[in-house]
Amino acid sequence: MIAPSRTVLAIGAGFGALTTAVAVAPAVVPAAAASSPATAGSAAAAPVALTTRSSGAPVNPSAATLAAQAKAGRTVAASGRIGMPSGLALSAGCSGRVTVTARRAGAAIAKRTATVSRSGSACRWSTTLSLPATTPAGSAVTVSGRYGGNSYLKAKSTPTRTVTVRA
């Protein structure tokens, strides 16, 4: 006996390139099993969840954050996270690099690259910038970051933060 065929399209992820579909395939049910009350009139195949990228194009991360704190010795600790859009697993999107730049009076005075890694239920990164010895204590330094993206996520800039240099 062949169970009725039905295909159910589930909720789209809402980010264009990602689509989630659930399909119930037609199944062949043995005659003995078809007569049992538990399987009569129901499909024998279990739903299979699929996450596909219909266009193959990367999508925007839901967030790119930056926290910066001035430390003694003219250093700046910077850290942040990259938010995954719904429908994209952390294991797929938690990769890439963030380039962190410190600027004083518009000129870049320090630059460092941090690697994004999975930490618990988030994608995090952190690095420490060493400022030049010529940077005066008490001066304002603007710190910014740029996530370079990966095969699943587009590049995205973080908000800027201003810190006061400590000697």
Provide a quick synopsis of the model.
The protein has 167 residues and is mainly beta. It contains two helices and 13 strands, in the order ββαββββαβββββββ.
How would you sum up this structure, described in words?
By secondary structure, the chain is mainly β. It has two domains: 6-53, no CATH class; 63-164, Immunoglobulin-like. The chain is built from two helices and 13 strands, in the order ββαββββαβββββββ. It has helices at 31-34, 90-93; strands at 6-8, 18-24, 48-53, 63-64, 67-71, 75-83, 97-104, 107-115, 117-119, 122-130, 140-147, 156-157, 161-164. The strands form three sheets. Strands 4, 5, 6, 9 and 10 form a five-stranded antiparallel β-sheet that branches. Strands 7, 8, 11, 12 and 13 form a five-stranded antiparallel β-sheet that branches. Strands 1-2-3 form a three-stranded antiparallel β-sheet, with no helix packed on it. A hairpin with a 3-residue loop joins strand 5 and strand 6. Residues 1-40 and 42-54 have low confidence and may be disordered.
